[in-house]
């Protein structure tokens, strides 16, 4: 077995030991196919008020601009599908936000993985990324054979659906590269049909500025009147296009203690959410992704849902 293969096998085994669901590797280089798609998406203002999406256009498409001398993108999936879910008659929070903020949880594992690679293999330069830098994580995961990008623009896998986080190590180490898998969406349009705001404007194209997740997290102004009666009780994020996806019937509960739901998230009624105070918000959502919308933002969302 050559060194490249040995190193690749070590990285994948170590990723599994650290709790990652799966790991794939692709050659670092310019994402030629993604460039026109990203340019078109931005030109049609499908990012809405997410101005940061316009920044670092070149870096989003070329990982060697993020890590000089980069040779490999190691893509990793981390399961967050919860065993317990919220009561049906309450305002809803996206499943990824039930527990501790994934940035804390996964970044620590990635740093450990990179450290272990350096300990085992020697001098390897690289950086860890978890959804907070200009990296097209779904495109890299698809290139690395971890799934295909579905009609709802999420990465899908036959074995586990889509309720997982995507992260990367970009490193200056030659490895064995995986190959993409085929698309298994077929003629299914479940996600397109189910989206209340018609944010999936074409198969495989989501207008971010029409998405319920955008309204409840990214949008800083008032939620538009036309959207308020279509939000189906989502107060933070939205899982509709994932919930209806047939591949998510294969989702299995995660085993990460830090992602365990906070009891209030599962049990609070609508009236309890409406009466939420800043103090309780700070306690319930300590180290939570929900802190991103701030107390004022969450109460704005609840007020919009309560006007129906």
From TrEMBL:
<comment type="function">
    <text>Catalyzes the conversion of epoxyqueuosine (oQ) to queuosine (Q), which is a hypermodified base found in the wobble positions of tRNA(Asp), tRNA(Asn), tRNA(His) and tRNA(Tyr).</text>
</comment>
<feature type="domain" description="4Fe-4S ferredoxin-type">
    <location>
        <begin position="173"/>
        <end position="204"/>
    </location>
</feature>
<feature type="active site" description="Proton donor">
    <location>
        <position position="131"/>
    </location>
</feature>
<feature type="binding site">
    <location>
        <position position="152"/>
    </location>
    <ligand>
        <name>cob(II)alamin</name>
    </ligand>
</feature>
<feature type="binding site">
    <location>
        <position position="191"/>
    </location>
    <ligand>
        <name>[4Fe-4S] cluster 1</name>
    </ligand>
</feature>
<keyword id="KW-0963">Cytoplasm</keyword>
<comment type="subunit">
    <text>Monomer.</text>
</comment>
<keyword id="KW-0819">tRNA processing</keyword>
<feature type="binding site">
    <location>
        <begin position="238"/>
        <end position="239"/>
    </location>
    <ligand>
        <name>cob(II)alamin</name>
    </ligand>
</feature>
<keyword id="KW-0560">Oxidoreductase</keyword>
<dbReference type="Pfam" id="PF13484">
    <property type="entry name" value="Fer4_16"/>
</dbReference>
<comment type="pathway">
    <text>tRNA modification; tRNA-queuosine biosynthesis.</text>
</comment>
<dbReference type="InterPro" id="IPR017900">
    <property type="entry name" value="4Fe4S_Fe_S_CS"/>
</dbReference>
<keyword id="KW-0479">Metal-binding</keyword>
<feature type="binding site">
    <location>
        <position position="213"/>
    </location>
    <ligand>
        <name>cob(II)alamin</name>
    </ligand>
</feature>
<keyword id="KW-0004">4Fe-4S</keyword>
<feature type="binding site">
    <location>
        <position position="185"/>
    </location>
    <ligand>
        <name>[4Fe-4S] cluster 1</name>
    </ligand>
</feature>
<feature type="binding site">
    <location>
        <position position="60"/>
    </location>
    <ligand>
        <name>cob(II)alamin</name>
    </ligand>
</feature>
<feature type="binding site">
    <location>
        <position position="131"/>
    </location>
    <ligand>
        <name>cob(II)alamin</name>
    </ligand>
</feature>
<feature type="binding site">
    <location>
        <position position="166"/>
    </location>
    <ligand>
        <name>cob(II)alamin</name>
    </ligand>
</feature>
<keyword id="KW-0408">Iron</keyword>
<feature type="binding site">
    <location>
        <position position="188"/>
    </location>
    <ligand>
        <name>[4Fe-4S] cluster 1</name>
    </ligand>
</feature>
<feature type="binding site">
    <location>
        <position position="238"/>
    </location>
    <ligand>
        <name>[4Fe-4S] cluster 2</name>
    </ligand>
</feature>
<protein>
    <recommendedName>
        <fullName>Epoxyqueuosine reductase</fullName>
        <ecNumber>1.17.99.6</ecNumber>
    </recommendedName>
</protein>
<feature type="binding site">
    <location>
        <position position="195"/>
    </location>
    <ligand>
        <name>[4Fe-4S] cluster 2</name>
    </ligand>
</feature>
<feature type="binding site">
    <location>
        <position position="241"/>
    </location>
    <ligand>
        <name>[4Fe-4S] cluster 2</name>
    </ligand>
</feature>
<keyword id="KW-0846">Cobalamin</keyword>
<dbReference type="InterPro" id="IPR004453">
    <property type="entry name" value="QueG"/>
</dbReference>
<feature type="binding site">
    <location>
        <position position="155"/>
    </location>
    <ligand>
        <name>cob(II)alamin</name>
    </ligand>
</feature>
<keyword id="KW-0411">Iron-sulfur</keyword>
<comment type="similarity">
    <text>Belongs to the QueG family.</text>
</comment>
<feature type="binding site">
    <location>
        <position position="245"/>
    </location>
    <ligand>
        <name>[4Fe-4S] cluster 1</name>
    </ligand>
</feature>
<dbReference type="InterPro" id="IPR017896">
    <property type="entry name" value="4Fe4S_Fe-S-bd"/>
</dbReference>
<dbReference type="GO" id="GO:0052693">
    <property type="term" value="F:epoxyqueuosine reductase activity"/>
</dbReference>
<feature type="binding site">
    <location>
        <position position="211"/>
    </location>
    <ligand>
        <name>[4Fe-4S] cluster 2</name>
    </ligand>
</feature>
<dbReference type="Pfam" id="PF08331">
    <property type="entry name" value="QueG_DUF1730"/>
</dbReference>
<dbReference type="InterPro" id="IPR013542">
    <property type="entry name" value="QueG_DUF1730"/>
</dbReference>
<feature type="binding site">
    <location>
        <position position="220"/>
    </location>
    <ligand>
        <name>tRNA</name>
    </ligand>
</feature>
<keyword id="KW-0170">Cobalt</keyword>
<keyword id="KW-0671">Queuosine biosynthesis</keyword>
